[in-house]
Amino acid sequence: MKHLLFSLLCLAFLLGSTRAHAQNPYKEFGIEIEPLTLSKGTYNEFFTNDSLVRIGSVILDTRNNRIARFVVVDTAYSEATLEPELTVRFLQPDPYAAYYPDLSPYSYAANNPLFYTDPTGKYIVIHYYDDDNGDQTFIFDGTNGSEAPDNAFVQAFMAAYNYATSNGEGTALLEAATNSDLSINLGAAVGDSYAKGDWVFWNPTQGITDGGNAPVISPAIMLEHEMDHSVDRMLNPDSHAQNQADKSSMPHARNMEEQRVMEGTEQRTARSVGEIGAGQRTRANYFSAHPVMTTGSTSTIIDRRASYMYWKNRYNQRKRQGLSTAWEEANMKRYKN
Ligand SMILES: [Zn+2]
Fold it and tell me: Hey, which of 9, 171, 257, 328 would disulfide with 315, CB 3.0 to 4.6 Å?
């Protein structure tokens, strides 16, 4: 702005360099005033460039309809100052702004478009790494499964989705994929599966079991379980928060939200695909089950080697932290050999 003012000043002096009598543009209207000019009326001060108009990045001279010059845009400068004609922003608040109280309602993809994508604002956005370790996404809307990339994580999800929804259950997965008001990100969990915010992190080979002769519950049912948390958080934010704070479910579940999911879609979906019989449960209660590694995302067969490694890692981690290792040690021994 300083620079522009200085340019205009120079221009004014250049153009007005011929001595002229004091100008008064209002004289023809019969008004006698002393014009406020920089030279106190000594020079003609006018701006001839009013015939130049800017159209996009072109300055057009309207007297001869020729391009006078091009607007040179310093992108480094404009990106830092967010010139509206050069940056793209939402013109209305994000309809999901209520779910992200810590973000500006006008920001796109949490201001991190290189990592997050929100191309449709809905459906399940599956994040995965391609063979070159590059971030990729596949947006699943419940109908485009045939277009899913040939990637182990995406295919594990597709198998789990088709399996869980095959007999009319898996309703949270179905809702997440097909409800155009919902946008849920799915990423691969390194350890245990969990839901956080609008993300579900899922371990495609981790199920649960109460041990002994109790049924093994597949990773697909655990995916449905986590999806239910995420969907409920978005569709019923008030009751979801209440259920999370409600600990009256103890000692059977961590809170009412866990109880709701465990007693609801977890039992129904597991039963619909035959993982539990009519009188059986996925687990006696929320705390009775332990994670177990399976041979696939829809499998109820325990991968003993992988399960042993999982519990060995947990055992060592607990030991390093100086915490009680009894539970980890028991499970580690359970899957040894
Ligand atoms: Zn849960």
Answer: 328
